[in-house]
UniProtKB/TrEMBL annotation:
Origin organism lineage: Eukaryota, Metazoa, Chordata, Craniata, Vertebrata
Recorded coiled-coil stretches: 942-970
Predominant location category: cytoplasm
PROSITE patterns associated with the record: G_VLIG
Species whose genome carries this gene: Sinocyclocheilus grahami (Dianchi golden-line fish)
Protein name, as recorded: Interferon-induced very large GTPase 1-like
């Protein structure tokens, strides 16, 4: 005994049980053929075959490593060889006699049975029953010999049979087998018999299948350890045909071993049997078994004695007592006689004692597993308690009473939701608002429904009792099946009878219609009577959805509603299927499914799944195939079983996970297409919906085709091809495998080839048909999907070996299943699968697109959108890395240019500088695309983004080269200014030095020195100023007006050019109508040109207004760039700049007029010019201020006075030339140090804000979200209109405000800290440069010139400081270089401290270089993107690339009224939303055509419309609805229109609070 368990590696499993969950895992072994295996693999191989319903599980060959042919020892002469070989037994030459006896197949089965937990036992017995094997009824414990009745294992087995009644009519029966009352024939033996009892029994039941394992079966061995004392049971189920061996369902029990040794089993079964059949050898009178036989013979119960040592034929010794001999007799004859005897016994008795499996539990001294297992018992008690609520209820009314939320209310909700998505009313948003109100009202009604005791008890049980939850759920399913089975069976019989009548009366139209109505009524009753766990969970789902909608718990719900999805998730993990699509309502409960998947992720983690879906006609064997493939238990029977779609998890074992990179296979089973119950109804649309949904959901779809009927094949293929074509058009790439079931003679290869050819031809024909419906360019099926007709078409033999109900599954079918499983795994290896998070989103996307009817047009791939957003965020980081690196390079080269260290800049040099960062970015990109969880989605953009980064890099290099070349050019232009300034400074140094030498003897007389210096300074500065004209303040607006006045010579109203007069800011106008005149047309009159037209009651349409606004914004942008190029802070202001800008604007206006149908009035040009200058006024003025401070002698010399006086004093006191030179260097360094520190700090702040500032640490969409939040918090209408009308400027302003706030509020911790850090670093570099220069000069024995050259060269990357800065200072007598170094070391900290002390929140922004401000650096980064606005609503395209390829798009559109759209012939602003409108059948009107354009075909309206991709979607932002309500009056005033009539704002919009509006931004962006 122990040796057996040891050999099977089950020695520790008697207590640590084998679990069903482990057996159902997808393992490597489950993919193998497994006709043979090693001994240690027997258990797993047996289980895998059994779960696939392969009856060859009992006939597994064991590979023995020691197996060898037996060789006899041969010492005989050739003459004796023949005789000895044949007739003489000699010892074997090997040790075969010592080899272990092979394990008996039934020992494998029983060992696994003993070591299995309750659920695996039940699964095993259910599968044994499906294999038409006998089942263990009484099982002795191998260690204690306690007899157990495994009642639990029978609970899920149903048997069906047909028999004829007294009227010779066929009656169908389906019953749970433990409830079935049948006659029972009990077979047993006394002593040892020569013939096989089990083999003879098999001939009675099914002579083509070994129901009972017997001694002559393959693999049988002499030793059998675990079968003695086991009683097995099976049933003969008649088919209602004349060839049936018995006319009624009969149970057969078989006691293994000598009955004399197993008295308890003998006693129980002989008592319960209808007929006892005993096998007897020749017994002696004193044999211990004689008494038992005698008692059976005396009993009135029929007894058949089979004498194994006698050859007599069937003889009736007395009434119901028979004997038959077996010796030397034909077994077929014996079987016939025995069958006749049993039939006679059963028919002759007036009241044949019937047997029920459940009655065995009443026997004394027999342990019943259900009572012995505490969890099982408690689960049963809880289930019975709940079932007591149903006992008095009418089954056809039960769902209506017990499950009110999923009945009419849920169906109404589904219908209204479909209407919401398909609304075609004229007042679209108002109608949708009404539908939403209805949906909420239905949810309120659901919420108010009283919770039935049944549901309350169910929720309480699965929530509180985790230990016996599985047993409870199993029990409840069993009891519900038991409760409903009889009524459903009766209704099905009634339906079949009525259907037969309908077919007969088909010619009689009137009668046929009446019968069809009756048939439909029965079908509805049948549907109402179907009541299982899925309906209970559907009700809980509706309870959850109603609570979630109203955000409050349901009355009498004992737990918080948010816990309900977790309960369903636990059920899924435990192996229960979850209803994905409600088959009754044909609707997906999205809120519930999403919540369950969220909980599933919380419990399992975001696991990767391979989604396998299946499609096929009704009753084509889909569920059976899945059950066989994965050991699942989807409902199967003839007619409609699965309704809707269910999904179930199959765990992937660790051993195979590494190969296929999935954690689970998610199996999606669906209802059959072309269902018989729906015949006569419109099924095409429903089938197309279902097919599209599951094909889109699956990574692989199995297309199940049953039989070889061409019409049926064509039917399903047309639906399937259309579904795959839709997937292609929305860029989903599932794969498919065709499974052709019930094909005869599947071995014939030529026939298979012909079948494949026909299938390919049909698929191609269906593709052409579907291409017309879907408007798709496809000629053959391979144009639609990657499909290999050789490998992706599987032919299955018939499921049953012969005719049901007694037929076992065909082993070839099971082998076909295994091969299909292999094919599925080969697809899985190539597939990326999807994460559970992605699955949730995919379900939502598919269903919402289907709700909108036009799937391809409506499909919104949220997974792609989310992945693309993530990619854009990464792109933002990569681009910032490149920009940041180039900024460092630009600053370094800028310094070198100013220092005249370089005289040209080449692109190749810039690329070399950028190479290291470029490589890092490439590496980061590669890792992102290869390792991100969305790698399979992201891969489609890999090449384009690599190109984008390359182009960006090239643009950065080109732009940097342009800037640096401008600096080179300007360096030469401003050389005179700089030289003059340096000349003044150095002249003052020399003259103050001369004065100091004259006053050296008065060095201690401070008063005299100061007086003399002040006089010297005043005279020197006066002299400089006299020779240099002062730099005056400027007035841009005055210069602009004067120029415009010269152009128009007084032809404009005085208000347009008079100084101090106001003009309209053209950048923020709601309309430009007053600025244009329509061009006269030769083809039509002026009235036609300007008439109120096509939805717009003014001269210009919103599209025209948008076009002009875009032009104005573009002009403003270009003038900004021109002003930057003037570099006023360095070069100074010149009135010619105004002329250049004005000329550019004039040329742009003329060019624009050539493209459009209107001309601009003079007022437009004037106001545009003035608006541009007003916008640029502050920038130009600030830059001129910086230029004046740096170059006006009066100003910059005033700042230098104290520095000069300090040096003057030191000269007077006799300081050496080296000391003075050192101090001069420090004074000269002060300004460059300050410039460098400010630039570096600006870059550091920009970097820090990119990391730490919420609004700036992501992509452009994230920035926009924060802009919208700020707008809502400020509630400033003018700012909103700035965002809507001039978004680029608004973004820039927001970034500047963010930087200003950050610099002010984080001044101490950020700005000042960075300044001090940069000052310290720079001080260290200057000290190192001084020290290294000193050592260099000492090594080279050089002079001060060499020292200065070395010093400036080392700092040329960091500072704008060169030898020329000291060119006018006499330093020839300087020779103490160590002293210079010491002076610098001493003076530098004071200078640094002075710079640091003067940094404040006020001075910091003023001191920044206009080109190197943190806000400008961030603006460059964020604003070089697409700014095209939706021609309808004005929403900004979110693409991060300016002038990008492909359509413009935006995740959420605004209300069209925000952009000025209104309803034709009215003054009512539009409340339409683009994404809703494009799903409707409504029309809009463009300006230049009388034709109305359907919203669905909006691209026809012209270029501005054609370049936009607007996907139908109801998930608009509540934010904009809140905005319209909050600023209704402002919008009406701005556009001189009202939100009335057709544009009346729905009441639903007014319910949104500002908080909800803000939350919607976080939720959707």
């Amino acid at each position: 005994m122990n040796n057996l368990f040891h050999r099977l590696h089950l020695e520790d499993r008697h207590h640590n049980k084998l679990r069903a969950a482990d057996a159902l895992q997808l393992t490597e072994r489950s993919l193998l053929s497994n006709e043979s295996c090693a001994e240690e693999e027997l258990v797993q191989t047996f289980l895998q075959k059994l779960l696939m319903m392969n009856y060859r599980a009992r006939y597994i060959h064991v590979n023995n490593a020691n197996e060898q042919h037996h060789t006899l020892e041969d010492n005989d002469t050739p003459e004796a060889e023949f005789f000895n070989d044949i007739f003489v037994n000699k010892p074997l030459s090997n040790k075969e006699t010592n080899q272990s006896e092979r394990i008996h197949p039934m020992d494998v089965q029983m060992a696994v049975f003993h070591c299995a937990d309750g659920f695996l036992k039940q699964l095993m017995v259910t599968k044994l029953s499906q294999c038409q094997f006998a089942l263990p009824l009484l099982v002795p414990d191998p260690f204690t010999q306690q007899i157990e009745f495994p009642f639990w294992t029978f609970r899920q087995i149903n048997k069906s049979w047909k028999m004829r009644n007294t009227n010779n009519e066929i009656i169908s029966q389906t019953q749970p087998i433990y409830k079935a009352q049948t006659p029972m024939v009990f077979f047993f033996r006394f002593g040892s018999v020569s013939s096989s009892k089990s083999q003879l029994m098999n001939t009675l039941i099914n002579d083509k299948h070994d129901t009972f394992f017997h001694r002559n079966c393959p693999g049988s061995s002499r030793t059998r350890v675990l079968m003695d004392g086991v009683v097995e049971i099976t049933w003969f189920c008649p088919s209602g045909k004349n060839m049936d061996k018995f006319t009624d369902c009969v149970a057969f029990c078989n006691l293994h071993g000598d009955a004399g040794d197993h008295e308890k089993q003998l006693q129980v079964l002989t008592k319960m049997a209808s007929v006892n059949v005993v096998f007897l050898p020749q017994l002696q009178r004193d044999d211990r078994n004689i008494i038992n036989v005698q008692e059976l013979y005396k009993d009135s119960k029929p007894l058949i004695c089979i004498l194994t040592d006698d050859d007599l034929t069937l003889t009736e010794t007395r009434k119901s007592k028979y004997k038959i001999g077996l010796k030397d007799r034909n077994q077929s004859d014996v079987s016939k006689e025995l069958r006749r005897a049993i039939s006679d016994c059963l028919s002759s008795l007036k009241s044949v004692s019937t047997f029920k499996v459940e009655d065995v539990s009443n026997c004394l001294d027999i342990k019943v597993d259900e009572e012995d297992d505490v969890d099982c018992r408690r689960g049963k008690e809880a289930a019975l308690h709940i079932m007591s609520v149903l006992r008095t209820k009418d089954l056809t009314k039960i769902k209506e009473l017990i499950l009110p939320c999923q009945g009419k209310l849920w169906h109404q909700w589904c219908q209204t939701n479909k209407e919401l998505h398909r609304t075609q009313a004229e007042e679209l948003e108002m109608e949708r608002s009404k539908k939403r109100a209805i949906l909420k009202r239905i949810r309120e009604q659901q919420h108010e429904e009283n919770m039935n005791t049944f549901i309350k008890l169910f929720i309480s049980e699965i929530h509180l009792h985790g230990e016996n939850k599985m047993y409870f759920l199993k029990w409840l399913g069993i009891l519900l099946d038991e409760y409903t089975s009889r009524d459903i069976s009766d209704l099905q019989n009634k339906y079949d009878e009525k259907w037969s009548t309908v077919v007969k009366e088909k010619e009689n139209h009137d009668k046929s219609e009446k019968l069809t109505a009756e048939l439909e009524k029965i079908s509805e009753e049948l549907q109402a009577a179907t009541f299982g766990l899925e309906h209970i969970m559907r009700e809980i789902g509706q309870i959850y959805e109603s609570c979630e909608c109203l955000k409050k718990n349901k009355k009498n719900l004992q737990i918080n509603f948010s816990s309900l999805p977790g309960l369903a998730a636990e059920m899924m993990i435990s192996g229960f299927p979850l209803e994905l699509m409600d088959g009754d309502a044909a609707h997906v409960p999205l809120v519930w499914i999403s919540a369950v998947l969220d909980q599933l992720m919380k419990k399992l983690g975001d696991q990767k799944v391979f989604v396998l879906s299946v499609l096929g006609l009704q009753s084509s064997g889909k569920s059976t195939m899945l059950n066989a493939m994965f050991g699942l238990q989807f409902a199967v029977s003839a007619g409609r079983c699965t309704r809707g779609a269910f999904m179930q998890l199959v765990k992937v074992s660790d051993e195979i996970k590494s190969q296929i990179n999935f954690d689970y296979v998610l199996v999606v089973d669906t209802e059959g297409l072309r269902a018989l119950e729906l015949t006569g109804k419109s099924t095409r649309h429903h089938d197309n919906e279902l097919a599209t949904f599951v094909v889109g959901l699956g990574n692989l779809t199995l297309i199940n085709i049953f039989g070889e009927n061409p019409a049926e094949m064509q039917d399903i293929l047309q639906i399937v091809v259309q579904a795959f074509m839709r997937m292609k058009k929305v860029r989903l790439n599932p794969s498919c495998v065709f499974v052709h079931q019930n094909v005869s003679d599947v071995i014939a290869g030529e026939k298979n080839m012909e079948g494949r050819r026909r299938l390919q031809k049909t698929l191609d024909e269906m593709t052409k048909l579907a291409a017309k419906d879907e408007v798709c360019d496809a000629e053959c099926f391979s144009d639609v999907i990657g499909f290999d007709v050789q490998n992706d078409v599987k032919y299955f033999t018939q499921l049953w070996e012969c005719s049901p109900p007694m037929a076992p599954p065909n082993p070839n079918y099971c082998e076909n299943i295994r091969e299909l499983k292999e094919t599925i795994m080969s697809h899985a290896v190539k597939s990326h699968g999807m994460m559970l998070t992605h699955l949730k989103v995919r379900i939502k996307d598919l269903w919402e697109a289907l709700l909108n009817e036009r799937f391809v047009f409506s499909f919104r791939n949220c997974l792609e959108i989310a992945a693309y957003r993530k990619l854009e965020t990464e792109y933002s980081k990569w681009s910032w890395s490149l920009r940041s690196a180039m900024m460092e390079t630009e600053n370094k080269l800028h310094n070198k240019i100013e220092n005249e260290a370089i005289h040209e800049v080449e692109e190749i040099d810039l690329k070399i500088e950028l190479k290291e960062t470029s490589e890092e970015v490439k590496k980061s990109m590669s890792e992102f695309f290869e390792k991100d969880t969305d790698e399979d989605i992201l891969i489609q953009w890999k090449t384009s983004f690599e190109i984008k980064i390359k182009e960006l890099q090239e643009n950065i290099v080109r732009e940097t080269k342009r800037k640096l070349n401008e600096i080179l050019q300007q360096r030469d232009l401003k050389k005179k200014i700089d030289d003059q300034r340096k000349h003044h400074e150095n002249t003052l140094f020399e003259k103050s030095k001369e004065l100091a030498l004259q006053l050296k003897h008065k060095a201690n007389d401070e008063k005299t020195l100061k007086k003399e210096f002040d006089l010297f300074w005043e005279q020197s500065v006066k002299k400089i100023i006299t020779g240099t004209p002062p730099i005056k303040n400027i007035d841009i607006m005055r210069d602009a007006r004067r120029l415009l006045n010269e152009i128009y010579e007084g032809r404009l109203p005085v208000d347009h050019w008079k100084e101090g007069s106001e003009h309209k800011n053209i950048l923020f106008l709601p309309s430009y109508s007053e600025y244009v005149s329509i061009k006269r047309s030769t083809n039509r009159g002026f009235k036609e040109a300007v008439k109120e037209s096509l939805g717009f009651g003014r001269t210009l349409s919103p599209a025209d207004e948008t076009q002009i606004r875009t032009f104005v914004i573009d002009v403003a942008k270009q003038t900004d760039e021109m002003i930057k190029s003037f570099n006023i802070s360095k070069m100074g202001y010149n009135k010619s700049y105004i002329q250049q800008l004005t000329d550019y604007i004039k040329a742009s206006v003329i060019q624009q007029e050539g493209r459009v149908k209107y001309v601009f009035k003079n007022e437009f040009f004037v106001d545009l010019v003035l608006s541009v200058y007003k916008r640029a006024n502050m920038v130009i003025t600030d830059q001129q201020r910086l230029f004046r401070e740096a170059n006006d002698p009066l100003l910059y010399l005033k700042k230098k006075r104290e520095e000069y006086y300090s040096i003057f004093q030191k000269y007077c006191r006799g300081a050496t030339s080296a000391a003075i030179f050192g101090e001069i260097i420090c004074q000269k360094l002060k300004e460059p140090i300050e410039q460098s520190v400010y630039k570096k700090t600006a870059r550091d702040i920009a970097d820090e804000m990119r990391s730490n500032c919420e609004s700036l640490n992501g992509n452009r969409s994230n920035l926009e979200k924060h802009i919208l939040k700020t707008l809502a918090e400020d509630e400033d209408f003018e700012k909103y209109m700035s965002y809507i009308k001039t978004p680029r400027d608004h973004f820039k302003g927001f970034i500047r405000d963010e930087v200003s706030w950050y610099s002010t509020h984080k001044f101490s911790v950020s700005v000042l800290a960075k300044m001090k850090k940069n000052i310290k670093l720079l001080q260290q570099k200057i000290m190192e440069a001084a020290h290294e220069s000193t050592e260099h000069v000492q090594r080279k024995r050089g002079d001060v010139g060499l020292w200065l050259k070395s010093f400036t060269q080392q700092l040329s990357d960091e500072l704008i400081f060169s030898e020329k800065d000291l060119s006018g200072v006499n330093h020839e007598d300087v020779d103490d270089f160590k002293l210079i170094e010491d002076v610098i070391k001493k003076e530098l900290p004071t200078i640094m401290s002075d710079i640091s002390s003067r940094v404040s929140t006020e001075t910091f922004p003023l001191k920044l270089d206009c080109k190197f401000r943190p806000d400008e650096l961030l603006i460059d980064h964020f604003c070089q993107c697409c700014w095209v606005q939706c021609p309808f609503c004005g929403a900004i395209c979110t693409n991060t690339i300016e002038n990008h390829h492909g359509d413009h798009s935006v995740p959420f559109h605004h209300n069209n009224g925000l952009n000025g759209w209104f309803y034709k012939g009215t003054t009512n602003l539009s409340i339409s939303i683009c994404t809703s409108s494009v799903a409707s059948d409504q029309y809009f009107h463009t300006y230049d055509s009388d034709d109305a354009v359907p919203w669905r075909e909006y691209r026809r309206a012209g270029k501005d419309f054609a370049n936009w991709s607007i996907t139908p979607d109801l998930s608009d932002l509540p934010y904009w609805k809140w905005f319209v309500c909050r600023f209704q009056k402002d919008l009406e005033k701005y556009y001189s229109k009202t939100f009335e009539g057709c544009g009346k704002i729905p009441d639903e919009w007014r319910k949104y609070t500002k908080q909800e509006a803000l939350e919607s931004l976080d939720q959707h962006i």
